[in-house]
Design a protein that fits this description.
about 140 residues, mainly alpha
Length: about 140
Amino acid sequence: MIYLGELAALFAAFLWAASSVAFRYIGRSVSPLHLNFTKGAVAIALIGLTLTLQQDWTPGGNWRAIALLLASGALGIGIGDTFFLSAINTIGPRRTLILEALSPPPSCNPRLRIFARTTRLGEPFRYFPHRCGCDLGS
């Protein structure tokens, strides 16, 4: 099927937008921190279920690198998603997703300066199918 990747990106963006609206309604009665812990617990349970069904508990690689990856993920998701859920409660899902849609271009400039990496011509346009789906879904 042609455009399967693009359709998958649009569907994922729609689900992201729909969940942002759902988080807005849930956020009226639950704090962002509690909601983030609950969301994380569900994600860990689903990852555990997936690993159990695959019967593959051993990640290949350096255990120190895996520990650092898990710690940085827990810190980044813990802080970032709590702020994201707080923004949904404060300014609403539509404005939050629009602000999030505007974040990739400003993040290219520090990457150019810090890592001395150049941006290829079509790179910023990779975000458009996902962001259009977010904007359409909310």
